[in-house]
Specification:
Pfam families: ASL_C2, Lyase_1
Shape: elongated
GO molecular function: argininosuccinate lyase activity
Order of helices and strands: HHHHHHEEHEHEHHEHHEHHHHHH
Strand order of the largest sheet: 1-2
Strand content: under 5%
Mean pLDDT: 96
Bound molecules: arginine
Catalytic activity: 2-(N(omega)-L-arginino)succinate = fumarate + L-arginine
Number of helices: 18
Structural class: mainly alpha
Distance between the termini: 61 Å
Protein name: Argininosuccinate lyase
EC number: 4.3.2.1
Helix content: 55-70%
Radius of gyration: 31 Å
Oligomer: single chain
Length: 459
């Protein structure tokens, strides 16, 4: 049999495979609440404009509420033959209220309907991501506050570079995640315009009020161009782009947790809650949550590439290709929320090994830059010469198998006579971090100032 919604010009129904490729109900049922909300706003507006009678609008309103409760109770007869959530809802409305149901689609198309539903859904996800990021940021701040003066090696090329503090390292991620939150907020602001009333593509001849439906749905205004309204998915791409950047930040932190919890580092220990054992090696304690988080980020990046690829060749206005937007965004959003929650848990339950961090910070000549800076400041050497002198001292210490502070003054003076006893004051890791007082630097005072600023900003 042919389709009840659009079957007028068709003699035969679709091939079974056609139905399988065409139907989206298996996934877009997730938009049911947005779809019903949009329909209620549309029907109310049609009545206010005199396009629908009040009694029809009232029947539609009540019918839609029944549909909503049926879906929420889990006893709604979803049908693949009815393709998508829009036609499933409308068909059920017809069962419930009869003829007035057929008037709901006046001055509307599934094209503006789906664009509206999906915008509402993605808008909620921007808010949810912002809230989850807030929670993660608070966990990082708590961590940073407790470790603002815990010295650790800072790395470049994953080689020991200069001492930093663990709190400073945590605060680096606070900055990243706060920018991520800002990106979701920016995306939300830009997407908050209503496509409803663009109809199929050209607008409608009915005297609708797009400002009224925009307001009823919490949009700032209607979209100004009907072709744009039904054919762009930049709001979804912007969500995926924001999610992708956030995902990369999450993945880098997860990677650090994996490295730091290894036997070779032992900077941190993951709590039992976020670890697993091995079925053969009894000693094992694997950071599976961090590894999976690192891996699942690939789904978010993949979703982003997939939707960009869907969109890049489409002429205006609507093409059915755009139905492929939803599964990508749903999966990316679910993955992001899971990853944010897992990271928050891992950070909150982490044990940080202060002694290990400090011992590692002193290894690898991490205060060589402090020594070079001292030669510039106290002995008046040009930085390039100080760099060379320090390099010679590092080579000497390396040959003797000791750290820089373990060289004798005589040994140091054999490399450069301007060196005095006072140099030993800058070779310790605590003095090193305390001296990095430049704005944003690793000195515990600076780190604490940043923590205080963020705590105030978050309220
Ligand atoms: N299920 C469709 C989608 O998600 C709804 C819009 C269909 N419009 C159309 N003219 N076939 O894109």
């Amino acid at each position: 049999s042919s389709n009840a919604m659009w079957g007028g010009r068709f003699a035969a129904g679709p091939d079974a495979i056609m139905e399988a490729i065409n139907a989206s109900i298996s996934f877009d049922k997730r938009l049911y609440a947005q779809d019903i909300r949009g329909s209620r706003a549309h029907a109310a507006m049609l009545a206010a404009q005199g396009i629908l009678t009040d009694s029809d609008a009232e029947a539609i309103r009540e019918g839609l509420l029944t549909v909503l409760s049926e879906i929420e109770a889990g006893d709604f007869p979803f049908s693949t033959a009815l393709e998508d959530i829009h036609m499933n809802v409308e068909a059920r409305l017809k069962d419930l209220i009869g003829e007035p149901a057929g008037r709901l689609h006046t001055a509307r198309s599934r094209n503006d309907q789906v664009a509206t539903d999906f915008r509402l859904w993605v808008r909620d996800q921007c808010d949810a991501a912002g809230h989850s990021l807030d929670t993660l940021i608070r966990a990082l701040l708590t961590r940073a506050e407790a470790t603002a003066d815990w010295v650790m090696p800072g790395f470049t090329h994953l080689q020991t570079a200069q001492p930093v503090t663990f709190g400073h390292h945590m605060m680096a991620y606070v900055e990243m995640f706060a920018r991520d939150k800002g990106r979701f907020g920016d995306a939300r602001r830009r997407m908050n315009e209503s496509p409803l009333g663009a109809a199929a593509l050209a607008g409608t001849g009915f005297p609708i009020d797009r400002f009224a439906t925009a307001e009823a749905l919490g949009f700032d205004r209607p979209m100004a161009n009907s072709l744009d309204a039904v054919s762009d998915r930049d709001f979804a791409l912007e969500f995926l782009s924001s999610a992708s950047i956030c995902a990369v930040h999450l993945s880098r932190l997860a990677e650090e947790l994996v490295i730091w919890s290894s036997a070779q580092f032992r900077f941190v220990a993951m709590s039992d809650k976020w670890s697993t054992g091995s079925s053969i090696m009894p000693q094992k304690r694997n950071p599976d949550a961090a590894e999976l988080l690192r891996a699942k980020i690939g789904r978010i990046l993949g979703a982003s590439v997939a939707l960009f690829t869907v969109m890049k060749g489409l002429p205006l206005a609507y093409s059915k290709d755009m139905q492929e937007d939803k599964e990508q965004v749903f999966d990316a959003a679910d993955t992001l929320m899971l990853a944010l929650a897992a990271m928050t848990g891992m950070i909150s339950d982490l044990t940080v090994n202060r002694e290990k961090l400090e011992a590692a910070a002193s290894n690898g000549f991490s205060t060589a830059t402090d020594l070079a800076d001292w030669l510039v400041r106290e002995a008046g050497l040009p930085f390039r010469e100080a760099h060379h002198v320090t390099g010679t001292l590092v080579a000497l210490a390396e040959k003797k198998g000791v750290d820089l502070p373990d060289l004798t003054l005589a040994e140091m003076r054999s490399v450069h006579p301007a060196i005095t006893d006072a140099v030993f004051g800058v070779l310790g890791v605590h003095n090193s971090v305390a001296s990095r007082q430049s704005y944003g630097g690793t000195a515990p005072d600076q780190v604490r100032a940043q923590i205080a600023r963020w705590k105030q900003a978050l309220g």
